[in-house]
Automatic annotation (TrEMBL):
Name of this chain's protein: Phenylalanine 4-monooxygenase
Domain Biopterin-dependent aromatic amino acid hydroxylase family profile: 1-245
SUPFAM superfamilies noted in UniProt: Aromatic aminoacid monoxygenases, catalytic and oligomerization domains (SSF56534)
A Pfam family this chain is assigned to: Biopterin_H
Alphabetized UniProt keyword annotations: Iron, Metal-binding, Monooxygenase, Oxidoreductase
Length: 245
C-alpha cells in the first residue's frame, strides 16, 4: 500500500492543521524536551501547514537511522507488526479523523501514528528500544502468554510512557502525546505513577476503553533500551497484577 496524497480533502487538511497546532501548544512544558527536539528536526516535513508526505518523512528517517514508515490499512496481525518493527519499519494508516472526532477515536488514525510515534524514532536509544521490542516479538510471539506480556510492555512504554526530567514528570508515549485530553489528564488529575520496572510492566494489565489511571516512569531512554536485554529472562512467567482503579 502507498499513501494517496491526492485523495485528501479540504477537511482532512483542516483536521491535520487543527490537531497539530493545538497539540504542539498543549505539549509545551509537558512533553519531554527530546520529543520536542525531534519534532523540530522533522519540521520541514512534519508541521501544521500540510498533511505529511510519507516519502518526504521516510527520506529524513532513513538518513537519520534507517527507519521508515510502512502504510497499513489499520490494525494488522500482531506477528506482522512485530516483524516490521524488527526491520525498523513503523506502521501507519493514512486516514484522518473527521472534525467531529477531534477528541475521541476508537482506532488510531494517521495523526496518532505520525505525530505521536514518529518523532522519537529520531532518538537513537528510543529507536533501538522499539526495534528490540519487535525482535522480541518475532522470537517469542508464537507464545500467547508472551504476546500478551509484550502488549503490556508496548502499552505502558511506547503508548503511555512517562519519563522523569529532574524532579518533574514529562510524557513520551504516543497515546498521550497525540491526545489533548490524555496530556492534560497527566498533569491535572490524580494518577498512580510507578518507577519503570520491566518485570512489573509485563505482569500489569490495562484497560483500553477507559482513560488511564496508572503509568510507568522511566529515568531515561537509555534505561528503556537497556531493559530489552533483560526481558527474555522474564517473558513467559505469567503473574497478573490487576490494574489500579
Amino acid at each position: 500500500m502507498r499513501q494517496d496524497y491526492s485523495a485528501y480533502t479540504n477537511e482532512d487538511f483542516t483536521v491535520w492543521r487543527t490537531l497539530f497546532s493545538r497539540q504542539a501548544e498543549t505539549l509545551k512544558g509537558r512533553a519531554h524536551p527530546e520529543y520536542m527536539s525531534c519534532l523540530e528536526k522533522l519540521g520541514d516535513v512534519l508541521n501544521a501547514d500540510k498533511i505529511p508526505d510519507f516519502d518526504e518523512l521516510n527520506e529524513k528517517l532513513m538518513a537519520e537511522n534507517g527507519w521508515s514508515i510502512v502504510v497499513v490499512p489499520g490494525l494488522i496481525p500482531v506477528d506482522r507488526f512485530f516483524k516490521l518493527l524488527s526491520e525498523k519499519k513503523f506502521c501507519s494508516s493514512t486516514w484522518l479523523r473527521s472534525m467531529d472526532q477531534l477528541d475521541y477515536l476508537e482506532e488510531p488514525d494517521m495523526f496518532h501514528d505520525i505525530f505521536g510515534h514518529v518523532p522519537l524514532l529520531m532518538n537513537p536509544e528510543y529507536a533501538k528500544f522499539v526495534e528490540g521490542f519487535g525482535r522480541l516479538g518475532v522470537e517469542y510471539g508464537h507464545n500467547k502468554t508472551v504476546e500478551r506480556q509484550l502488549q503490556r510492555l508496548y502499552w505502558f512504554t511506547i503508548e503511555f510512557g512517562l519519563i522523569k526530567l529532574k524532579e518533574n514528570t514529562r510524557i513520551y508515549g504516543a497515546g498521550i502525546i497525540s491526545s489533548s485530553g490524555e496530556t492534560k489528564h497527566i498533569f491535572e488529575d490524580d494518577i498512580d505513577v510507578h518507577s519503570y520496572n520491566a518485570d512489573r510492566v509485563l505482569h500489569t494489565d490495562f484497560i483500553t476503553s477507559e482513560i488511564q489511571t496508572q503509568y510507568f516512569e522511566i529515568t531515561s531512554f537509555e534505561e528503556l533500551y537497556l531493559s530489552v536485554s533483560t526481558l527474555d529472562k522474564q517473558l513467559g512467567k505469567e503473574v497478573s497484577i490487576a490494574p489500579a482503579k
